[in-house]
Amino acid sequence: MKVGMKMKVGKRLGAILLSVLLVFGVIACGKNEPKSSPSGSTGGDASKAASDTPSNTEKIKIIYSMWGSDEEGNTTQLVADKFNASQDRIEVKIMAIPWEEYQTKLNTMATAGQLPDTGLVQEGNVLDWAKEGILSDVSTMYEGTDSKPLDSLAFKNDGKTVAYSAANEILLMYYNKDMFDKANVPYPPASLDKAWTWDEFVDAAKKLTVDKNGKHPNEDGFDSQSIVQYGASIENLTWQLETWTLSNGGGYYSKDGNEVKVGDDASIEAIQKVADLYLKDHVAPLSVGQTDDGISRTLITGTVAMATNGAWNVGTSLNTARDGGLNYGVAVLPYMKEKVTINTGGANVVFSQTKHPKEAMEWIKWYAQEENSWGLIEAGIWMPTLDKWYKDESFTHKWVDNPNFPPYAEYKSAVVDFAQSSAARPAAWYYTAHTADFNTLLGSILGDVWTGKTTAKDAITKNLDALKAANKGNK
Questions:
Q1: Which SUPFAM superfamilies does this UniProt record tie to the protein (predicted)?
Q2: What is the DSSP string of 198-209?
């Protein structure tokens, strides 16, 4: 895999967070404020609030690092200013570092004993850093409060929580309702109990795939080299691909994360089925699994009828596309043998070098609260981290019943309920170290599988020892 592509694989949450911060910052500045918030108020001008706060040189200084430009750092600082103005003990300063330099810069700072107090860490690196002693144990951070995030959002190292995701995200399926209507194909189900099997999914995709002469796959005269509309696209970015191995009864790892299972027959079969959507079924466009822009290059371009990806796409791309005329819906994922989706979310951590872990945790707790990130949730970019937003319908209505989302009943079933169902499983990086290296290697190994130059079985079998070494931190 090329270096540039490797960066994109790890940058999914980075790109989301950077666009998210712009939304959040605008709201914090009092511009384009949401019509309502969970508490019924819209907040105020954060910069003005900060200027009204008397100077206090005794405040404890907390540095929070993030990846982004100076402009994005300034935007986030406006959010921190709101926190600074809310109390007189702590002052948070934002340290913005360009994405390309972020990990190298933090490594250098760690060696010099100069890490910030707290900051963002990419999901795939959290447990690696924890095992190196770089992260603080935050297991007690929410003791005595009712704001502890869902257990599925806790990164755990040797049984100790070292980070919580700032938001909850799951994988689901999006689809173009107009394409389904035109083909007279029923919409994919929003309810988990009615989820399509893999065969039903492929069958629907064939009915929605059309070549330049109006032919479908398996029809006489169909030309797979002149397809003008594809029925489906499965996002095969490596970390998302794990979903299908789990669905087929396999997975990348054992449940405790100590054993690599991607070489098992069930895992290999699942990966080959995804590849065959392009190679044999002729219902999906070629995707080499190196970039996380699947919705933009499929559903939004108008070339694909249904595509899988994350819940964040509602806010990062689909709202704009809908304004441009896209009539889209949301559905639960199809399944092979077991009904599965995975949840994830970028990590806020407290670095072990801080002299002020208590204050750093206080900032993180504030920053992650729904009322302080309401613009992100209302926009459809973040999903809440607290259980009540999924199980108490009065809270769910405050979250979902707004113009940025698909119809309430549809979204609640396909996303809110799906996220709380037995199908939802935490992504491997919550409990397994070295996933960044493992995913990068696996993505490189599978490159020729997507194009049909080799099979999933041959590619994985030949490289299984290297994958097992990557899982143990041996490159």
A1: Periplasmic binding protein-like II
A2: HHHHHHHHHHH-
The β-bridge partners of 176 are 328
* pLDDT at 475 (0 to 100): 63
Report d(CA 408, CA 342) in Å as an integer.
22
Q: How distant, in Å, are the alpha carbons of 43, 174, 271, 287 from that of 394?
A: 21, 26, 40, 41
The answer to whether 106 and 351 have CB atoms below 8 angstroms apart is: no
pLDDT confidence tier of residue 58, bands split at 50, 70 and 90? confident
Looking up tokens 């929003």, which residue turns up? 190
Residue 293 pLDDT greater than 80, yes or no: no
290 vs 171: CA distance, rounded Å: 17
* Residue 57 binned pLDDT confidence (cut-offs 50, 70, 90): low
Q: HSE of 182 in the Cβ direction (CA atoms, 13 Å)? A: 12
pLDDT digits (tens, 9 = 90+) for 370-423: 888 888 899 999 999 999 999 999 999 999 999 999 999 999 999 999 999 999
Would you tell me how many other CB atoms lie within 10 Å of the CB of residue 26? 15
Strand 60-67 versus strand 118-121 pairing type: parallel
Greatest pairwise CA separation for the chain in angstroms:
79
Q: Which two tokens stand for residue 59?
A: 């405040």
Tokens of 377: 């949730």
* Structure token digits, residue 191: 């309810």
Domains parsed from the chain with CATH numbers: 3-168+345-386 (3.40.190.10), 170-343+430-471 (3.40.190.10)
Torsional sign, CA 37, 40, 43, 44 = positive
Of 276, 277, 252, 256, nearest to 264 by C-alpha is 252
Please report, for the chain, how many H helices and E strands are present, in that order.
Answer: 22, 13
